[in-house]
Amino acid sequence: MTDRPQTKDAANSMWGGRFAAGPDAIMEAINASIGFDQRLYAQDIRGSRAHAAMLAAQGIISDSDADAIAKGLLTVLSEIEAGDFPFKTALEDIHMNVEARLKEIIGEPAGRLHTGRSRNDQVATDFRLWVRDQCDAAIAGLQALIGAALGQAESGADWVMPGFTHLQTAQPVTWGHHMMAYVEMFGRDLSRFQDARRRMNESPLGAAALAGTGYPIDRHATARALDFDRPMANSLDAVSDRDFALEFLSAASICAVHLSRLAEELVIWSSAQFRFVSMSDKWSTGSSIMPQKRNPDAAELIRAKIGRILGATVALFTVMKGLPLAYSKDMQEDKEQVFDAADNLMLALAAMGGMLSDLTANRENLQAAASAGFSTATDLADWLVREAGLPFRDAHHVTGTLVAMAEDRGCDLPDLTLADMQSVNAAITDDVFNVLGVHNSVASRQSYGGTAPDQVRAQIARWKEVLA
Ligand code: ARG
């Protein structure tokens, strides 16, 4: 190690020799974040423009320097957006790349931009702005998805289908009710992103390295300029916490779980064994060998996305655990996880929204399946309680006996005769057949939040108001 050239120039130069250059190259490789944090360029430039304007307003730098900085930063912005910005790994990250280029463009005033701030509050600000945008994107994606689910619910509010527990036919429900269950889940996801956004909307800028600064800066002004509600109240906290990212990832993980469950149902429902739904060609793929196949690839991929999104969440929780205050370089490991999780969540939300809008539910198949599997056995037991005065446990037993009888004969409950029924319990009358049909069954479930079409329509109307 002592043989290594002592100056950075020597260490980085082409002639430094393999031994000396090796470790430096590896140091540069492990240290640099420009490969990924260049995604923060717009936020970085926005933050710097707000900071420079505030420095001038406070008399900390001259108006002419602030002007030069503001214009120069716009030039940098257009270079990056045009794709001809020379990103340099030696300059480590987006913050130093932007500042170094600004210096090339405007010269000396560039050196005044970093007055009263540090890369620690700079990166915390940039990243908060970026994650805040992703909250907005998730909110928009969820609103579109909820709209698609509401559309499905509305067109099939009274279509009957089997409701399952343990993936065994349980009781008939309505298609609208099933779709509205997802509306509720995605609605909670929506509110989680709204909550997270509200909590993260405070500005770290001006916390400087960790302790604040002796310059007479105005943190309220920069907070306003960046559309934050207020500056963060503690400079140590401002540079050292990433709970806003953890909260975003947590909300994303829960949302991805919900997406995976709907995706799984679409995979099952579109199979030849179920045929509950037909997926549009737009959202299906074929097989190169089996001509009959229509594969629900998008649904399968959405089902899988939770893997990487939850992985990112666990990764960042693990990075943050046990870090002493304030900033530690460990925190540079926050970005790739959040970038990947956000990209994949937005893609999954968009794909699910599109798939659901273009989905055709097969009303006849849903209804046929709803009637099979003794799905109205509970209705029969309830009838015995209501009309024949049996205790529920006895009614359950009588019904079980009748189900076994029907199973023996290879028929459904409504196919048994009144005499068959009376042979098990004499109190049964012809009226029982009114509750054995699936439509009567769902219509009877009028309890708040139940599957009766009236209840479902009331929830659809409520959600339409919420979204409007
Ligand atoms: N690239 C760094 C990050 O992403 C920026 C902050 C660096 N601060 C420092 N004191 N080295 O976290």
TrEMBL record:
Residues 17-311 form the Fumarate lyase N-terminal domain. It is an enzyme of class 4 (lyase). CDD domains: Argininosuccinate_lyase. Keywords: Amino-acid biosynthesis, Arginine biosynthesis, Cytoplasm, Lyase. Its EC number is 4.3.2.1. It catalyses: 2-(N(omega)-L-arginino)succinate = fumarate + L-arginine. One of its GO terms (molecular function) is argininosuccinate lyase activity. Signal peptide: none annotated. Residues 374-443 form the Argininosuccinate lyase C-terminal domain. It is found in: Cytoplasm. Pathway: Amino-acid biosynthesis; L-arginine biosynthesis; L-arginine from L-ornithine and carbamoyl phosphate: step 3/3. Pfam families: ASL_C2, Lyase_1. HAMAP family: Arg_succ_lyase (MF_00006). Belongs to the lyase 1 family. Argininosuccinate lyase subfamily. This is Argininosuccinate lyase. It comes from Paracoccus onchidii. The lineage of its organism: Bacteria, Pseudomonadati, Pseudomonadota, Alphaproteobacteria, Rhodobacterales.
